[in-house]
Amino acid sequence: MTYRLDRRFVLRAIGLNLIVAGVSAALAFLLSFVGALAWVFGVLAVMAVLNALRVLGMPPVVARTDANEVRVGGFLTVRPVHVAWSSVEDATTDGGRLFFDRVDGEVLAFPLAYVGGRADELVVDVYHRLNTANGYQRFDPS
Questions:
Q1: End-to-end CA distance of the chain
Q2: Cβ count near 121 (within 10 Å)
Q3: Which residues lie across from 23 on neighbouring strands?
Q4: CA separation for the pair 52, 46 (Å, rounded)
Q5: Which alpha helices (DSSP H) does 1-142 contain, by range?
Q6: pLDDT tens across 27-63, in order?
Q7: For the CA atoms of the chain, what is the radius of gyration?
Q8: Which among 108, 113, 103, 105 has a CA at the least distance from the CA of 133?
Q9: In a 3-state reduction of DSSP, which class is residue 67?
Q10: Are strands 107-111 and 2-4 parallel, antiparallel or unpaired?
Q11: Which of 13, 18, 55, 78 could share a disulfide with 73, CB 3.0–4.6 Å?
Q12: What local confidence, expressed as pLDDT, does residue 62 receive?
């Protein structure tokens, strides 16, 4: 499954890009009278607007799970980390974060705010995939 960055973070990124575009366009306009490097700021303004549209159209992926591993983090968030399910002892939640207790003793924390309303879905997906990787299944008394 793929989990994308929540819209509240996406809107901040878009706003920052539009501020950069506006300042760059103003500098390009002012420098056009002097004739020095106005095109550089013009190109920067256009690139910032295009990046804002890209982020709006397709927010960055912040978590991805498959049968073999989980990848958390990415563009606009924490550094991406790949963790194989076989190297995860336990997964817990506390204080709005998802913790992965790894076999090597390290703990990986991922803020669930990055996925917004899909946080519960991510937690259930992680538990399901972790159980599948360890060979656990629901007890069926019949």
A1: 32
A2: 12
A3: none
A4: 10
A5: 7-34, 38-57, 119-134
A6: 999 999 887 789 999 999 999 999 999 999 999 999 9
A7: 21
A8: 103
A9: coil
A10: unpaired
A11: 78
A12: 93
d(CA 6, CA 118): 9
Sequence-separated (6 or more) residues with CB below 8 Å from residue 36:
none
pTM: 0.81
| Residues paired with 107 in a beta bridge | 101
Distances in whole angstroms, Cα of residue 25 to Cα of each of 36, 51, 123 = 14, 15, 44
Distance CA 81, CA 73 (A): 6
The amino acid present at 71, given as its one-letter code, is R
Distance CA 113, CA 8 (A): 9
Pairing mode, strands 61-65 and 69-72: antiparallel
